[in-house]
Amino acid sequence: MRRLAVLVSLALPLVLPACNDGKLDNSPPQKASAEPTKPATPSASVEAGGTIEVKVDGQGYHPAEIHAPANAAITLAFVRADEQNCGEELVFAGLGIEKDLPAGERVEVAITTPASGEVGFACGMNMYEGKVVVRP
Ligand SMILES: [Cu+2]
């Protein structure tokens, strides 16, 4: 009698392919763009006979754009908070108005708006610019 020896070779090498060469990227996607928190040119309105205060600082005039009715008497009250800016001269070139703005003082400029268009003002070097825009 012959015994059949069943040899079962378990020596089968398991070769796992090294397929995972990718690096996991779990970083969050970048936000496309931050929303602006304030408009580039802050504006404000004044009515006929009214006064609007305009602050002057190192960034220019605030507001830099003032909406007003046509043919209206309005007053702009400029307040230059400190010396840390170059707003000491104020020029309304189209109206022939020039004023000094001493720091800490309130300087009122009375104008009459035109029938349409806008009236620009600037510092003596044209670095800061503002305008009164006539409402249509
Ligand atoms: Cu200037």
Please characterize this protein's 3D structure.
By secondary structure, the protein is mostly beta strands. It contains no helices and 10 strands. The radius of gyration is 36 Å and the shape is globular. About 15% of the residues have low confidence. The structure holds copper (II) ion (CU). Copper (II) ion (CU) binds next to loops. Copper (II) ion binds next to loops.
Strand content bin: 35-45%
The small-molecule ligands in this entry are: copper (II) ion
The largest β sheet comes out as:
6 strands, mixed
Radius of gyration: 36 Å
Helix count equals 0
Shape: globular
Q: Count of DSSP E strands?
A: 10
Spatial order of the strands in the main sheet?
A: 1-4-10-9-6-7
Written as H for each helix and E for each strand, in order along the chain, the element string is EEEEEEEEEE
Distance between the termini: 118 Å
The mean pLDDT is 81
Unreliable segments (pLDDT under 50, ≥5 consecutive)? 4-23
Q: In terms of structural class, how would the helical and strand content be classed?
A: mainly beta
Oligomerization state of this entry? single chain
